[in-house]
Design goal:
282 residues; alpha/beta; Rossmann fold; 10 helices
């Protein structure tokens, strides 16, 4: 049974990402943890001093009550719109800093996937530059599925996987993507963007063969682009092939930021319309 963490700030965008997760895993036995963190930051006063003592306890109690009320409202809305006997829900409110709270949940509940929303183009910039989603992508050891505000949230008939073949693949790293592809009988399109003149070396070719073996029984195809930067290559790949979900392994923060960070003068459509699955190197 999959355990999926659904962080929410009770916004419509957060609820949209929850709905996407419920549809994506509609045929899977899942426990969904609807999760809200109300943090110590609320106890800071305007002059940067910290509320303490009785007043701090009162503020914490008010925040807890508000969080629990919001979680109940989200659950009631789900019950009206979705009736799936394969899905169960747990409501969790934590008084903590956001990143610490997420890490605690991942470790305590052995979470398989975190599913979060973000706010389109500017949201992706914020995500990488320090918002909650960006911290989770970079600092939590768990796959993260990020759903942009403008994503169509369609069934992923075409799944894209961006890789450099530099490191060998393991099922525990990319299993969540393969499981989604098997579930929906998706076609997996594997993109390698060649960033240097040399052909793939023996190690890269061997890693490609490992990946092909792991995709046995899954419709898939390999692609290679040359003489193009990563961002432009991924954007063309997504648009031309109608990619519904893009996957990648987070080998380095620099690679994630290059692929997802949006310079002020450039916005790629995959930033605002395509869910992005960031898997972690084990």
């Amino acid at each position: 049974m999959k355990k999926i963490l659904l962080p929410t700030d009770f916004s419509e965008n957060a609820y949209k990402s929850i709905c996407y997760g419920l549809r994506l895993f509609m045929d899977e036995e899942c426990v969904f943890f609807i999760f809200n963190v109300h943090g110590p930051s609320a106890l800071y006063m305007g002059d940067s001093s910290f509320i303490s003592g009785t007043m701090a306890g009162q503020v914490e109690e008010v925040l807890r009550q508000q969080a629990e009320k919001g979680l109940e409202e989200v659950k009631q809305r789900i019950d009206k719109e979705f009736q799936n006997p394969k899905h169960s829900f747990e409501l969790v409110a934590k008084f903590n800093f956001f990143l610490e709270g997420v890490n605690e949940m991942v470790k305590e509940e052995k979470i398989d996937l975190i599913l979060m929303g973000t706010k389109g183009a500017s949201g992706f910039k914020e995500m990488i530059m320090g918002s909650n989603a960006g911290h989770v992508v970079n600092k939590v050891n768990c796959p993260v599925l990020v759903v942009p505000e403008d994503a169509a949230c369609e069934i992923p008939h075409n799944v894209g996987f961006v890789t450099d073949y530099d490191v060998s693949f393991e099922y525990r790293e990319i299993g969540v993507m393969i499981d989604i592809a098997r579930m929906w009988r998706s076609k997996v399109h594997i993109l390698h963007i060649k960033t240097h003149k040399d052909d793939p070396d023996e190690k890269q070719q061997n890693n490609r063969r490992i990946l092909e073996d792991m995709l046995e029984g899954v419709d898939h195809k390999f692609y290679q682009l040359s003489n193009v930067d990563i961002e432009t290559g991924v954007n063309c790949f997504v648009e031309l092939l109608g990619i519904d979900l893009v996957g990648m392994i987070a080998r380095s923060r620099k690679f994630i930021e290059r692929l997802l960070f949006i310079p002020k003068v450039v916005t790629y459509s995959y930033h605002t319309h395509t869910p992005f699955l960031v898997m972690k190197e084990q």
